[in-house]
Design a protein that fits this description.
There is one protein chain. This protein is an alpha/beta fold. The protein has 2 domains: 204 residues, Response regulator (Rossmann fold, 3-Layer(aba) Sandwich); 123 residues, Response regulator (Rossmann fold, 3-Layer(aba) Sandwich), CATH 3.40.50. The strands form 4 sheets. It has a 5-stranded parallel sheet. The protein has a 4-stranded parallel sheet with strand order 7-6-8-9, with helices on one face. A 3-stranded antiparallel sheet has the order 10-14-15. Strand 11 and strand 12 form a beta hairpin. The longest helix has 18 residues. The chain is elongated.
Length: 384
């Protein structure tokens, strides 16, 4: 199986490099691709390579070629060599790097343009354009959704980890109003106590206890009915927010949701939302939550992309590869529109661009995605 996989990969690389010596009479677009094609992250790198091939197939223009080079992972020397090799072929635009930590390195090549799937910042940064699903795009979609639902007391929750300061900086830059923030310890043993404080759980628990005492010694029917109703409750009183945005993933997200339910946050009164989960089906098994909403790429296009990828390569892609797929389409659009690609300014579009993941808008040298809101309901992802 491994031998067969290597044969397929070799074929693709050869295919990418065939006919790269252009006929001067034909205008050719050559796009570099830097990715970890060997080593620990080779599977991801090769998935990007396959994704590029799918994009080329759909574009269907024989004058467009991809020139892939192995950039390794956290290997400055290999990264620089890959870029130099691509540059020596007269290529002006490169897909990558994956990691925003490499941005500092690629900025040295200020005569090249890099289109990265990173989601750290929507800003055009020197010679780098990030087209990942940025936190800014996600928060804008969520806040618009929350406003439509007529909620006005929102808490944005996020963990204390290596990304805390980055999230805080982005929230500050967005200048959000009527929004509170709540930082929590991702350790489940500490988390529950912190959520109890956020939800004023002890006071609400005590409110119920005192309220029940008022009716326990009374014999009239009305008091009996009220006591019976109170016995069905765990706390008494509402929390001081009506919506939450949880910036977390996987088991950490599930721990936060479980803690909110444990502290008796009324799901009929509080809107539960989170950030893009790439349609992670494991969230279906978080049975304590009725509905959770989040912004995401177009689900039908995402499924269609996965299906086409599997039919072609007999394996499923890493979700980030759909960004590279869209990036290649974006580059082709810019090339056809301008007739050339020389600098980052050639990607300053006035009009919106529709891609597989959604609609891009370019304004003030920033990239934003117009994301759709989905909810989980009965083990399905439903567009809201």
């Amino acid at each position: 199986m491994k031998k067969k996989y290597l044969i397929i990969l070799t074929y693709l690389i050869l295919l990418f490099n065939t006919n790269l010596s252009s006929n001067e009479e034909n205008k050719i677009l050559k796009i570099g691709l830097i990715a970890p094609l060997t080593g620990e992250f080779a599977e991801l790198g090769n998935s990007l390579l396959y994704s590029s091939q799918l994009a080329l197939d759909e574009i269907g223009d024989e004058n467009v070629f991809i020139v892939p080079r192995d950039a390794g992972h956290n290997d400055k020397e290999k990264l620089n060599n890959a870029i130099q090799d691509i540059k020596s072929q007269g290529i002006k635009i490169i897909l990558g790097p994956l990691n925003n930590d490499d941005f500092k390195e690629v900025k040295k090549f200020n005569d090249l343009v890099f289109i990265s799937p990173s989601n750290i910042s929507p800003k055009f940064t020197d010679n780098v354009i990030s087209i990942g699903v940025s936190l800014e795009s996600q928060l804008i979609s969520l806040i618009n959704f929350i406003k439509k639902e007529k909620r006005n007391k929102t808490v944005i929750m996020f963990p204390k980890n290596q990304y805390t300061s980055l999230i805080e900086q982005k929230l500050k830059e967005m200048n959000l109003t009527n929004i509170r923030t709540f930082k929590y310890n991702p350790n489940p043993q500490v988390l529950t106590g912190e959520i109890e404080t956020l939800t004023n759980y002890s006071q609400r628990k005590n409110n119920l206890k005192l309220r029940k005492k008022m009716f326990e010694d009374k014999d009239d029917e009305q008091s009996s009915k009220e006591l019976e109703r109170l016995e069905q409750l765990y706390t008494l009183g509402d929390v001081n927010f009506d919506s939450v945005i949880i910036i977390d993933f996987g088991n950490n997200l599930k721990s936060v949701l479980t803690s909110l339910v444990y502290t008796d946050v009324n799901q009929d009164k509080v809107l539960f939302t989170t950030v893009n989960q790439w349609f992670d089906e494991s969230i279906f098994y978080e049975n304590t939550i009725k509905n959770i909403y989040y912004p995401s790429v177009n689900y039908k296009e995402f499924r269609r992309y996965n299906k086409n990828y599997y039919e072609r390569f007999k394996k499923y892609p890493n979700e980030i590869t759909i960004l590279t797929y869209d990036a290649l389409g974006l580059i082709y659009y810019a090339w056809k529109k301008n007739g050339y690609l020389n600098s980052i300014n050639d990607f300053s579009f006035k009009n919106k661009i529709k891609g597989k993941i959604g609609t891009f808008s370019f304004k003030d040298k920033k990239v934003f995605q117009e994301l759709e809101i989905y909810k989980t309901e009965k083990n399905k992802f439903i567009k809201y």
